[in-house]
Amino acid sequence: MKNLVLVEALICMAFTIATPSAKAEINFTSKPVIADIYAVPQALDPKKITSASHYIILLHLVRPLIKMNAQAEVEGDLAESWSNSDNFTVYILKLRADAKWSNGSLITANQVVQTFSHQMNAKSAIHADFSDIRTITAADDHTLHFTLNRPNANFLVKIAHPECGILKNPKATVDIEMFAVTSGPYVLVQKGESSYFLKRNPFYSGFAQDAPIEVLFQSSPLKEQISAIKSKEADFVMPRGGLALDDHHKIIEHKYIKPWEPHLGFSYWMSLNPNSKALSDHATRKWIQCLLAPGKVDDSSMKPFWEPASQMYLPEGIGRLTKWETSDFWTATAASVRPAHVPHRLHVLVSKGYPFSHKVLEALQGAGIKLDISEYSKQDEFVALSKAKRFDIFMIDNDFSSVDLIENLLVTFNETRPLVTVKSGSDWYRSRLHKAENSMDPGDRHLLFREIAKALLDDALIAPLSYFHVVGYRNENLDISSWSTLFPEVAFWKASIKRH
């Protein structure tokens, strides 16, 4: 999970690699956009989303009631309007009167109920929690009533997930049956061993001018992906596994290939435990934080994949601290002095896969600290080790690519296996998080996200290490300027393509 190969393994599950025969069995009526992405899933079941590829393909086939824009604001999709009770336990949504399935029939409220009921009964959606919904009913063909088990001001954000995309046949167990008629911009025409061939839904109104009529999602080995984008056999590539920096530079030497750098990636940090005897003193944690300051444990020459991190979140997005704020913080932190009583020994938990782990350890050992080192490779190992033993500091990462950070923070401060350790008895972070979770105002949430990020630095609870950025490549004829840069979006119905 922690190096380029394992990060890609976290984002996507390694399934069957595409074969020439799997690609050859598709008969195109026109030249499609060919997107060679991470390992595609064996099935597109919305109840079992496990990979970035799953999200990408599924979002071309389903349409949710609600969507999020690039400013983390709620917008209608299938729903054109909504209201809620004062205590946020009842939501009423009105469907668009012109919303149609790909076969031309109207999408009704009863069909939406069927989709949600199927997900609620399955109880298996990995990234979406349907247990908050007590009941969902159709008052008429265009009106939905949601009653929740508890107040949730953020409910509309939650139903913007692709798991909540509306299905014509939610009980189908075969992809081609589930997505032969869809609510989304494309329908599934054919499936190969590691490929999905999609065709435009004529009743979807959100297509860009010159948007592709057909899209082929496939997944090839890394060398074949690089060859395909260089030879123009592929229009869009998201490399599988660890792409070397030299290969990146060789790819973009071709003037017709443009790098794609979405706001998608991971933040890595050291969590400093204020409840351990060695690090209970703030001045000691501040000194450790200074030892691991940006640039001391990373290498900016690894851009665009890796760069030193100055805060907990991926930079340059709403709700983040500005580069001037973090620069001022680290300038002040550089003045930290060595405490009178330096910890003689620290218990450290590090990631085997993080490529700069050795620099972290060297920085600590170079300051005269003896280390008892434990290592982990996967999240479940981290959870088991952190429960079995109290560490003074531990290395961790989390995905902070989301345009709205609330769910990332809920994961980070999960009480059963927190990724940041706070002072015992302190409720400050939990209260801010609760307030953000229950705020209907994106601006208020963004201010709270900034408060939390700043406090984690000021309290010396984290030492940011690195940002890892996902990088892809596109043919210059593929115009993706309408894609959001603040959200991990791959939306070919918003793209235009010009063939020469």
What can you see in these coordinates?
This protein is α+β, with helices and mostly antiparallel strands. The protein folds into three domains: 4-62 and 171-263 and 471-497, Periplasmic binding protein-like II (D-Maltodextrin-Binding Protein, domain 2), CATH 3.40.190; 66-164, Dipeptide-binding Protein, domain 1, CATH 3.90.76; 265-469, Dipeptide-binding Protein, domain 3 (Roll), CATH 3.10.105. It contains 15 helices and 21 strands. The protein has helices at 4-11, 20-24, 52-58, 109-122, 155-158, 175-178, 222-230, 245-252, 282-291, 323-333, 357-366, 379-388, 406-412, 428-437, 442-458, and strands at 33-36, 66-68, 74-76, 79-84, 90-95, 133-140, 143-148, 186-192, 195-200, 214-218, 236-237, 257-260, 265-272, 306-308, 345-351, 370-376, 393-399, 462-469, 472-475, 478-479, 496-497. The strands form five sheets. It has a seven-stranded mixed sheet, with helices on one face. Strand 8 and strand 9 form a beta hairpin. Helix 14 packs antiparallel against helix 15 (442-458). The chain is globular, with a radius of gyration of 24 Å. The two termini are 40 Å apart.
The portion of residues forming beta strands comes to 15-25%
Low-confidence stretches: 1-28
Oligomer: single chain
Number of helices: 15
Count the domains. 3
In the CATH hierarchy, the third-tier topology of the largest domain is known as: Dipeptide-binding Protein, domain 3
Overall CATH class of the largest domain = Alpha Beta
Could you tell me how far the N terminus lies from the C terminus, measured between alpha carbons in angstroms? 40 Å
CA-based shape: globular
Structural class: alpha+beta
Strand order of the largest sheet: 8-9-10-1-11-19-12
In total, the number of strands is 21
Report on the biggest sheet: 7 strands, mixed
Helicity, in percent? Answer: 25-40%
Mean pLDDT: 88
Radius of gyration, in angstroms, nearest whole number: 24 Å
CATH architecture of the largest domain: Roll
What name goes with the CATH superfamily of the largest domain? Dipeptide-binding Protein, Domain 3
